[in-house]
Amino acid sequence: MAVPARRTSKAKKNKRRTHKGLSVPGLVLDKETGEYRMSHRISPDGSYNGKQIIE
User: Fold this and answer.
1) Cα(55)–Cα(52) distance, rounded to whole angstroms?
2) What is the pLDDT of residues 3-41, one digit of tens each?
3) What is the pLDDT of residue 5?
4) Cβ atoms within 10 Å, residue 24
5) Is the pTM of this model over 0.85?
6) Could you tell me the CA-to-CA distances from 12 to 5, 15, 22 in Å, in that order?
7) DSSP one-letter string for 12-52
């Protein structure tokens, strides 16, 4: 059975795990309501891209 020759250092371990961080969600400022919302989503009042989608 294979056994590592030497211990992996903290720096080497952390460099390997750099892609595991959390990403910030894409928030945009809604022009009509002035509130933040997720991009490419319908706003709370039911409008999207300046058009009323849901009444």
Assistant:
1) 7
2) 989 999 999 999 998 888 888 888 999 888 888 989 898
3) 93
4) 5
5) no
6) 15, 5, 20
7) HHHHHTGGGS-----EEE-TTT--EEETTS--TTSEETTEE
Give me the pLDDT at residue 21, please.
Answer: 83
| 50 φ/ψ sector (left φ>0, alpha ψ -120 to 50, else beta) | left
Task: Give every CB contact of residue 33 below 8 A, 6+ residues apart in sequence.
Answer: 43, 44, 45
Tell me how far apart the alpha carbons of residues 34 and 12 are, in angstroms, rounded to a whole number: 45
Phi, psi of 52 (to 5 degrees): -80, 115
Partners of 37 in the beta sheet? 28
Which amino acid appears at position 23 of this protein?
S
